[in-house]
Design goal:
The termini are far apart. The protein is elongated. The protein has 13 helices and 19 strands. It folds into 2 domains: 173 residues, Rossmann fold, CATH 3.40.50; 213 residues, CoaB-like (Rossmann fold), CATH 3.40.50. The longest helix is centred in the C-terminal third of the chain and has 14 residues. The protein is an alpha/beta fold. The protein has an 8-stranded mixed β-sheet, with helices on both faces. A 5-stranded parallel β-sheet has the order 2-1-3-4-5, sandwiched between helices. The structure holds cytidine-5'-monophosphate (C5P). The site of cytidine-5'-monophosphate has 12 residues, from helix 11 and strand 16. One of its GO terms (molecular function) is ligase activity.
Length: 418
């Protein structure tokens, strides 16, 4: 008689989870230590399962010390605990970083020739593979077929970053930054189905960060935008298969999202120019940047000096509204998403102001965030509403900025491609 496989372990309430961190044998294995540290510092209980070859790069003692848990590689250790079954069954998330070409191949075939692959077969929780290998190996049809097969089974295989590889080579195949891996791990714990590969081939441009409007060579008018929400939008879209360009103004120090093309801007004028150029080719445009509404009418070419006459008077002039301009130049079928940071006042609540802004700006979707009292700005978490021009309103529950991004992409994915 056959019995049904045991169900996936239910997520316990609270922020901490049982995570398995698989480490395959590539040079990027040393970065797994940083991923591990981030996961344990977030309060998770992390069991590291390296492959035998991973231990050529990082010793078991390092993983044991950082995780406070034993480290095994084979199925013939800890026999009484049946570790090759239990670890997978109990895991609430499996992260494999780095996932080498060989590991992806063994996982795709369903091999169980070591503790890590056996664990992958028994796990029923979300699995996040983070590839790292040379460009040729990543682009090889064998690897691409394995990746497609794993994705078709509902597992997440990250797009690798592009950049410096071992030796002098450079190209796609670099391990994404540990901060980015930790962000996506958190996202999958918040929402196991947050990363379907459903935006494949969609061309998306996202703006992020705050503009700076110079007053003189050393001073500017700026704002507190960290860029976190726009980066999360770009990151999640790229991991859902989209071709993403991120037009980044000034941000906190953030990891560049893997698989995303970056364009830099500084002032509202330069952001406008970049957005108009990029939007001409894009199917979806998201304005998450905090654009200064005003700029100094004059920019001094020397540092403005203190004088006995007292402080200078600064005259401001209005910047163009880029979102409104993008809506005016919208291509056929193009979807435009705006953001609104609102507070309630005596004339209405946050949603009331959001609805009015959606009508005024003319975009298709508007993400409305309640701000003030330490909410949203420079914070890792966000919440709000997603208002649609067709009158639909969806509440976006509190969670990571990546979680909010995943809800926005759900709404975009539901609309058919141009
Ligand atoms: O009017 P408000 O600044 O609240 O609108 C916010 C939305 O408009 C955001 O999507 C922001 O990126 C965009 N915006 C813009 N150009 C401006 C000001 C805001 O595109 N000058």
């Amino acid at each position: 008689m056959t019995s049904a496989p045991p169900p996936a372990p239910r997520r316990r309430s609270g922020a901490t989870a049982r995570i398995v961190l698989g480490v395959a044998g590539g040079i990027a294995a040393y970065k797994a230590c940083e991923v591990l540290r981030r996961l344990t510092e977030a309060g998770h209980s992390v069991r590291v399962i390296p492959t035998e070859s991973a231990l050529n790069f990082v010793g078991a003692a390092t993983f044991e010390a950082l995780s406070s848990q034993p480290v095994r590689t084979g199925v013939f250790e800890d026999i009484p605990e049946v570790a090759h079954v239990r670890l997978g069954q109990q895991a609430e998330l499996v992260v494999v970083a780095p996932a080498t070409a060989d590991l992806l191949s063994r996982a795709a075939r369903g091999r169980a020739d070591d503790l890590l692959t056996a664990t992958l077969l028994t796990a029923r929780c979300p699995v996040l593979f983070v590839p790292a290998m040379h460009t040729e190996m990543w682009l090889h049809p064998a690897t691409q077929d394995n990746v497609a097969l794993l994705r078709s089974r509902g597992l997440t295989v990250m797009e690798p970053a592009s950049g410096r590889l071992t030796g002098v080579d450079s190209g796609p195949g670099r391990l994404p930054e540990p901060a980015e891996i930790a962000e996506l791990a958190r996202l999958l714990l918040e929402r196991p189905d947050a990363l379907p590969h459903d935006l494949s081939g969609r061309r998306i441009v996202v703006s992020a960060g705050g503009t700076r409007e110079p007053l003189d060579p050393v001073r500017f008018l700026g704002n507190r935008s960290s860029g976190l929400q726009g980066f999360a939008l770009a990151r999640v879209a790229a991991q859902r298969g989209a071709e993403v360009t991120l037009v980044a103004a000034h941000t906190a120090e953030l990891a560049a999202p893997a698989g995303v093309r970056m364009v830099h801007a500084s002032t509202a004028a330069s952001l406008r120019e970049a957005m108009l150029a990029e939007a001409a080719e894009a199917e979806v445009v998201v304005m998450a940047a905090a654009v200064a509404d005003f700029r100094p009418a004059q920019q001094a070419d020397h540092k403005i000096k203190k004088t006995a006459a007292g402080p200078p008077t600064i005259t401001l002039e209005t910047n163009p509204d880029i979102l409104v301009e993008l809506v005016g130049k919208r291509r056929d079928g193009q979807l435009i998403v705006g953001f609104a940071a609102e507070t309630g006042d005596e004339t209405g609540d946050v949603l009331h102001h959001g609805r009015a802004k959606l009508a005024r700006k003319g975009c298709d979707l508007l993400v409305v965030n309640a701000v003030g009292e330490g909410r949203t700005f420079e914070q890792p978490d966000n919440a709000g509403w997603l208002l649609s021009a067709d009158g639909t309103e969806v509440e976006l529950p509190s969670g990571s900025k990546a979680l909010l991004a995943s809800r926005v992409w759900d709404a975009v994915a539901r609309r058919s491609p141009v």
